[in-house]
Design a protein that fits this description.
- This protein has two domains: 36 residues; 113 residues, no CATH class.
- Helix content is 38%, strand content 23%.
- It is elongated and about 90 Å long.
- It contains four helices and eight strands, in the order H-H-E-E-H-H-E-E-E-E-E-E.
C-alpha cells in the first residue's frame, strides 16, 4: 500500500500549526478577562483627588516657611475633630461618590501614629480596597510624634 509509507505532508503541518496558534491566541485573549471583575482599576481622577488633598493638607497644616513640618497643635485639632468622610469631601471639594481617608503612619506604613491621645487618622474607613494613594514625608514641629519622620497617607476610592 502506497498510503502507509507516507510521512507528514505540508498540509498536515500547516493545519496542526494553525490549530496550535489559534488555541494559544484564544487562551491569551480569554484568561485576563476571567480576573477583570475582581481587579477594579483606580481612575485618574481619584489619583488627582488624592494628590490635591495631600497638597492642600500640607499647605494648611504646615509650619510657616517649613513645608512638610506639621504644626502639632493644628494637626491634633484636625484629627481630633473626628468626622467622617463627608466633612473631608466638603472641605476638599471632592465628589459625593468619593471616599477619602487621611492618616499619619510610620515610615513603613505599619502603624498609625497618635499625638496627645489623638489618633492621627480621619475620614472614611479604609479596608484594603483598590484606592488612589498619595503619601508625603512629614515631621512635626515639636519632634514628639515622629522619629525621624512619618508618612502622611491620603487615599481616595
Amino acid at each position: 500500500m502506497i498510503g502507509d509509507d507516507r510521512g507528514q505532508t505540508n498540509q498536515d503541518f500547516a493545519v496542526g500549526v494553525s490549530i496550535f496558534l489559534l488555541t494559544t491566541a484564544f487562551v491569551f485573549a480569554f484568561i485576563p478577562s476571567i480576573f477583570t471583575p475582581f481587579n477594579s482599576e483606580v481612575e485618574d481622577s481619584q489619583v488627582t483627588q488624592a494628590d490635591r488633598v495631600a497638597s492642600a493638607f500640607l499647605d494648611n497644616y504646615s509650619v510657616a516657611d517649613k513645608p512638610g513640618t506639621l504644626d502639632v497643635d493644628r494637626a491634633e485639632e484636625f484629627f481630633g475633630n473626628g468626622g467622617d468622610g463627608d466633612e473631608l469631601r466638603d472641605r476638599y471639594d471632592l465628589p459625593v461618590t468619593s471616599q477619602v481617608n487621611v492618616t499619619v503612619r510610620t515610615p513603613n506604613g505599619s502603624v498609625t501614629h497618635q499625638s496627645g491621645g489623638v489618633t492621627l487618622a480621619r475620614g472614611d474607613d479604609y479596608s484594603g480596597q483598590p484606592a488612589a494613594s498619595t503619601s508625603r514625608v512629614v515631621t512635626f514641629d515639636d519632634g514628639s510624634v515622629c522619629d525621624p519622620s512619618c508618612r502622611l497617607v491620603v487615599r481616595v476610592w
